Amino acid sequence: MSSPEPGTSWVDPGRGRGAPRRSSKRIRFEGRLLGHALLVATPGLIAAGLLIGWDTLPPTGEGILLATAGLLTLVLALRLRRAVVYPLQVMANLLEALREGDYSFRARRAGPGDALGEVLLEINRLAESLKQERLHAVEATALLDRVMREIDVAIFAFDGEERLRLVNRAGERLLARERRDALDRDAAELGLAPFLAGESGRTVEHQFPGGSGRWGVRRSRFREEGRTHHLLVIADLSRPLREEERQAWQRLIRVLGHELRNSLTPIKSMAGTLERLLARSPRPDDWEEDAARALDVIAARADALSRFVAGYSRLARLPAPRRQPTEIGPLIRRVVELEDRLEVRVEEGPEVTAKIDPVQVEQLLINLVQNGVEAVLEEGGGEVVVRWEASAPRGLVVVVLDDGPGVSNPENLFVPFFTTKEGGSGIGLVLGRQIAEAHGGTLQLENREKEGARAAVTLPLGKE
Fold first, then answer.
1. How many angstroms separate the CA atoms of 431 and 318, rounded?
2. Going along 403-452, which residue ranges are E strands?
3. SS3 content of the chain, % helix, strand, coil (to 5)
4. Residue 298 near residue 333, CB atoms below 8 Å
5. Residue 24, SS3?
6. What is the C-alpha separation between 429 and 414, in angstroms, rounded?
7. How far apart are CA 462 and CA 460, in angstroms?
8. E-assigned strands of 237-330?
9. What integer pLDDT is reported at residue 9 of this predicted model?
10. In 268-302, which positions are buried (b, 16+ CB within 10 angstroms) versus exposed (e)?
C-alpha cells in the first residue's frame, strides 16, 4: 500500500466508503527516505559484525572500523536523502510559483536523457506555455477593453441578481452616471430592468437620462465562475435612421431630376422642331406626317415619364418591372430617334420579342446612348453604334459602342453620385444597373481594345 498524501489517513481497502478510518501518525517523506537508506545498509553492517565475531567484544581497531562503517553509512544515507529531496523541493517551488502566477522561474539542469531532467524540462515548458497564454490573454483583454471603451454602443453586464458588474463609456453616457457610481447597483434602480426581460433584438422608443429616441435592444446570457450573467446591448438608432432617411431623399431627388432632364430634353427638341416646321411658309407637303410623328414621340415620352415618376412617388424606390411582351427592334429605334445631337447608327439584329418592362428598359438605353453621344462629342469626332443579338442560353444582349475617349475610372462607374462629367449627377449608370438587375440581367461598361467604350445590357428573354 502506498503512503497517503499529507493530511489524509490510512483507509482499509476492504472497508466501504463510509467505514471508519484508522488514524496514523504521518512520517515525513524525508524521514521515510532516510529510514529506507539505513535499512538498505543494515544487512551490510550485520554481515560485517558477523565476520568480526559478535560473541566476544571486538578489539579496539575492529570497533573503530565498525563505527567508521556505520558513520559512513549514515553520511551516505543523508547525502542520498538530499539528492532525492532537493529536486523535489525545487519542483514544489516551481509548481507553487506557477500556481501563484509567477512564470519567471526556471529549473536548471533540465534536459532529455535523464528521468529527473525530463521532469524539470516539462515543468519549464509548462511555465513557458502558461506565460505565453497569459500574455495572449492580457493582450486580448486589453484589446477588448479598448473596443468596449471606444465603441459607440452601450454595453452592460449584470450578475444573476441583476446587479451591474460592467459598463462601458457609452453606457455611462446613456445612464448619465460615472462607472464608480453605477457599478453594483440594481438594474431597476438604473432603469434597465425592463430591458432584461421580454423579447431580445427589438426596437423601442425610450427616454434615458442621457438621451431619448429609438433604441435597438439585444440581450444574451453568459457564464462566469459557474454563475449566470446577463449581457445587455443598447444601440442608438435615431441618428443612423435620420442619416439614412436624408440620404434616401437626396438619392430620390437626384434620380428624379436626372430622369426629368433626360426626358424633357428630347421633348423640348421635338417641340422646337414643330415650332420651326409651323413657322415655315410654305410648309412642306409631308409636314403633317412629320408633325404627327413628333407629337407621338412627345406624347410617348411624357406618358412614360409620368408613369416612371409616379412609381417613384409611390414607393420612393425603383418600381418593380411591369413585364410585358415587347418587340426589341422598334424599342431600340425609338430610343435612337430621341437623340438629335448626333446620328446614331443602328445595326439591325434579329426580330425578337422579350418579356420586359418597356418603360424601364427604354430609360436604361436612353442613358447609355446619351452617354455614348456625349463621349463622342467630347472627343470631337466618331460615331455611336447600337446593335443587339439574342440566343436561348444567353438571352437578349444590347450593345452600345462609341468612339469616345473611353472609361477613365472604371472602379467608380457604379458608385452613386460619382461622375466625371461637368454638371453630371452620377445617377444614370447606377439606375441603369438597378433596372437591369431588377429584370434578372446585367449591365457592363468597359473600354474597347482600340478606342472608345462598350456598354452591354444582358436581359433574359422571359418568354414563359
1. 8
2. 442-447
3. 50, 20, 30
4. no
5. coil
6. 6
7. 5
8. 324-327
9. 31
10. ebbeebbeeeeeeeeeeeeeeeebeebeebbeebe
Q: What interhelical angle do 358-379 and 238-279 show, nearest 10?
A: 70
Q: Using an 8 Å Cβ cutoff, are 387 and 456 in contact?
A: no
In angstroms, the CA 94 to CA 107 distance is 8
Q: β-strands 353-356, 384-391: how paired?
A: unpaired
Return the biggest CA–CA distance within the chain. Answer: 168
Nearest to 305 by CA among 365, 263, 357: 263
- Mean pLDDT lowest for which of 46-60, 231-245, 370-384? 46-60
- What span, in angstroms and rounded, lies between the C-alpha atoms of 221 and 359? 53
Kindly write down the DSSP assignment for every residue of 93-128, as one continuous string. HHHHHHHTT------SS--TTSHHHHHHHHHHHHHH
Does residue 161 sit in helix, strand or coil?
Answer: coil
pLDDT in tens, 12-66: 333 333 444 444 455 665 666 667 666 666 666 666 665 655 545 455 655 666 6
Q: What sign for the dihedral angle of Cα 192, 198, 201, 206?
A: negative
Q: Rounded to whole angstroms, what are the CA distances from 396 to 111, 145, 197, 440, 458?
A: 76, 56, 56, 11, 6
Torsion angle of the four alpha carbons 12, 15, 21, 24, in this order, in degrees rounded to the nearest 10: -10
Look up residue 328 and give its amino acid.
Answer: I
Q: Are 1 and 53 in contact (CB under 8 A)?
A: no
How far apart are alpha carbons 274 and 295 in whole angstroms? Answer: 8
pLDDT in tens, 438-460: 898 999 989 988 889 999 999 99
What is the per-residue pLDDT for 17? 38
Which of 210, 151, 217, 157 has the alpha carbon at shortest distance from 185?
Answer: 157
How many CB atoms within 10 Å of residue 364? 28
- Alpha-carbon distance 277 to 291, whole Å? 8
Using an 8 Å Cβ cutoff, are 215 and 206 in contact?
yes
Distance CA 250, CA 257 (A): 10
Q: How far apart are CA 206 and CA 214, in angstroms?
A: 7
Strands 345-347 and 384-391: parallel
Q: How far apart are CA 241 and CA 216, in angstroms?
A: 11
Closest listed residue to residue 164, CA positions, set 143, 141, 195:
195
**If DSSP codes are grouped into helix, strand and coil, which group holds residue 451?**
coil
C-alpha pair distances (Å), 318 with each of 116, 396, 416, 430, 463: 79, 22, 14, 11, 23
